[in-house]
Amino acid sequence: MQGVTARFDWYFDRVVLHRPIVIGVQPDAVAVDSTTHTVYVTSGETCCAAPGVLSVIDGQTNTVTSKIDNVGNEPESVAVDPITHTAYAGDFQSLYVVTRLPGNMQSSPAAKT
Fold first, then answer.
1. 24 φ, ψ (degrees, to nearest 5)
2. d(CA 29, CA 53)
3. Looking at the chain, which terminus has fewer C-beta neighbours within 10 angstroms, N or C?
4. Residue 85 CB neighbour total at 10 angstroms
5. Number of separate domains in the chain
6. Do the strands 27-33 and 38-43 form a parallel or antiparallel pair, or are they unpaired?
7. For residues 73 and 82, what is the distance between their CA atoms, to the nearest angstrom?
């Protein structure tokens, strides 16, 4: 079963995008880089510690532009630095840094201190 994301207008209290955006299984957290209009959505199975996925959505066209696999197990949170355009996704034990590279994106575990 694929998860979906919909666009919601909080001012008018209604869904404004009637075509769902298909992403990974069980979407959990959303973050927006308002500078680049990029939306990040974490997803992953919550039953079996499956590798997580971070879906990257172009907020202007509402299309998935990239899916980054192996972003922890069951990622539960995501945040974005709008100045460096770096996304941080976390699961129950690790933090992953997602950096935008020319033409693609890459995920790596954050250094532990």
1. -70, -175
2. 11
3. C
4. 15
5. 1
6. antiparallel
7. 25
pLDDT band at 113, cuts 50/70/90?
very low
90 in Cβ contact with 75 (< 8 Å):
yes
Of all residues in the chain, the percent with pLDDT exceeding 90 is: 5
Task: At 19, list the tokens.
Answer: 């075509």
Amino acid found at 38: T
Least trusted range by pLDDT, from 28-32, 75-79, 88-92, 96-100: 96-100
For residue 66, the one-letter residue type is S
**Domain CATH for 51:** 2.130.10.10
Helices (H) and strands (E) in the chain, counts: 0, 12
35 membership: H or E segment, kind and range: none
The parent domain of residue 62 ranges over 3-109
d(CA 30, CA 76): 10
Query: Vertex 90, ends 38 and 55: CA angle to 5°?
Result: 35
**5 with 15: CB under 8 angstroms?**
no
